[in-house]
Amino acid sequence: MYLTWLDSNSWLLEIGNQRILIDPWLVGSLTFSNLDWLFKGSKSQERPIPENIDLILLSQGLEDHAHPPTLKQLDHQIQVVASPNAAKVVQELDYTSVTSLAHGESFTLNNQVEITAFPGSPIGPTLVENGYLLKELASGLTLYYEPHGYHSPQVKQVAPVDVIITPIVDLALPLLGPIIKGTNSALEVAKSLQPQVMLPTAAGGDVTFEGLLMKLLQAAGSAEEFRALLEKNNLKTQVIDPTPGDRFELCLEEHKTLPISG
């Protein structure tokens, strides 16, 4: 299994001989509803569009997960698996193969990787976006991705999970509360799923953020503090703090199939 962090929530995952691009923001700036004064993210360097992508996986329909300028540049023939809200974004861009996954539904990519949708981040009073469990069918290795730290109790049913990508730092707005649930939420999911490796997401990377929202956001936590929490709770999970743009291999202990008796 290989991973490349492409800043913010964007990842390139290589699993089961498949190349999966997760929540890509690769070109241009990041704004919400074109309100630069409220929030704007700018990259110090644009990431090249990865080649030979087998699937685009979108967890949410908001611009920091389904980034319109990036999606416009990607090949519209690439398969897309998305939350129902994100599926609308790519369908409006005329992508030709879009699978909308409701919570509990699964999709199998080229008989190599099974992707199952779980309840993820709440957006407003009624909408709940997706988290995903990806399983390499040949080895049984699994990866769980939820970019805002909202972990459904249903995820416990798939324990143990080998790799978790989720925030480990809290981001909150005064009076409104957490936008991103980091430290405590990440610790609880680590206890539940007993991962071999955890990787933080939703951090900036090589990105500069500005606007009114950035003046109000309150951040708490760090990778070092989270490692100490894991140790305090007798968890052997390794925390990897990736460098943006660097491809790295996760050396995981594969699941051993027990012999069938009788």
TrEMBL record:
Domain of life of the organism encoding this protein: Bacteria
UniProt signal peptide: none
Pfam families documented for this protein: Lactamase_B_3
Protein name (record): MBL fold metallo-hydrolase
Gene source species: Halotia branconii CENA392
Upper classification of the organism: Bacteria, Bacillati, Cyanobacteriota, Cyanophyceae, Nostocales
